[in-house]
């Protein structure tokens, strides 16, 4: 009996961890991007008005210009540029990296992610909740999974050649929190005393990091 209960609780926890977005209740719910309502997701347009182009996008056809700060640019599908993905629990991301560019450590509160390296050589990795790091070097055609909610990164190991990756994410609205920016450039700021103690640095260090990150 006790074992049965433990098994049930384990299963419930496991199932809740792999849960993606809520199941759709219809074939499709093409996003009405002009709707004034706030619901869990985006309201649908009249199904009779749906056309093929609602399910297509060229949003990922163009290279994103890597930022000077990190040397990367992430372009996402969303309910605005691909309204047909509303309620489907999916996002596709195009990740362009310049030489030695990184997508800094970040997490997606609502999605797991599977990434495929299409060009260049990537070092990718995530840290689990026990503090263990899993990393892998990816060549074109090779893939890696980042479990939901865990902090992960991608980096281009080549200092000259750009790299390209594409990721699928298990939510139409994965959300992203870049750890360094969340902690040092939030508005309003996290009090210096907290960051000093959290990172075991002094006030000047905190100011310098804030300034370097554009906060
Ligand atoms: C990503 O690239 C696009 C297209 O070049 C650009 O408009 C956008 O500002 C870039 N984003 C960042 C964060 O640099």
TrEMBL record:
Gene Ontology biological process terms in this record: plasmodesmata-mediated intercellular transport; regulation of root development
Database matches in SMART domains: Cupin_1
Pfam families (alphabetical): Cupin_1
Domain Cupin type-1: 58-207
UniProt keywords, alphabetically: Apoplast, Disulfide bond, Glycoprotein, Manganese, Metal-binding, Secreted, Signal
InterPro entries: Cupin_1, Germin, Germin_Mn-BS, RmlC-like_jellyroll, RmlC_Cupin_sf
Entry keyword Signal: yes
Cysteine disulfide partners in this protein: 29-44
Binding site for Mn(2+): 106, 108, 113, 152
Subcellular location: Secreted, Extracellular space, Apoplast
GO cellular component terms given for this protein: apoplast; plasmodesma
GO molecular function, one term: manganese ion binding
Annotated signal sequence range: 1-20
Residues annotated to bind oxalate: 108, 113
Sequence similarity: Belongs to the germin family.
Cited PANTHER family: GERMIN-LIKE PROTEIN SUBFAMILY 3 MEMBER 3
Descriptive protein name: Germin-like protein
Organism in which the protein naturally occurs: Acer saccharum
Classification lineage: Eukaryota, Viridiplantae, Streptophyta, Embryophyta, Tracheophyta
């Amino acid at each position: 009996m006790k074992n049965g209960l433990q098994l049930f609780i384990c299963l419930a926890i496991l199932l809740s961890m792999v849960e993606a977005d809520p199941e759709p209740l219809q074939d499709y719910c093409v996003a009405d991007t002009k709707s004034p309502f706030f619901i869990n997701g985006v309201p649908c347009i009249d199904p009779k008005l749906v056309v093929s182009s609602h399910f297509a996008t060229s949003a990922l056809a163009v290279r994103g210009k890597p930022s000077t700060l990190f040397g990367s640019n992430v372009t996402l599908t969303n309910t605005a540029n691909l309204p047909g993905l509303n309620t489907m629990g999916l996002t596709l991301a195009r990740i362009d990296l310049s030489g030695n560019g990184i997508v800094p450590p970040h997490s997606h509160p609502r999605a797991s992610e599977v990434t495929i390296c299409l060009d260049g050589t990537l070092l990718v990795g995530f840290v689990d909740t026990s503090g263990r790091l899993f990393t892998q070097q990816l060549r074109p055609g090779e893939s890696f999974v980042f479990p939901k909610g865990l902090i992960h990164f991608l980096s281009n190991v080549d200092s000259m050649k750009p790299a390209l990756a594409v990721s699928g994410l298990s939510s139409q609205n994965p959300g992203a929190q870049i750890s360094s920016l969340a902690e040092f450039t939030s508005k309003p700021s996290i009090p210096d005393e907290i960051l000093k103690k959290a990172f075991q640095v002094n006030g000047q260090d905190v100011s310098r990091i804030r300034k370097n990150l554009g906060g």
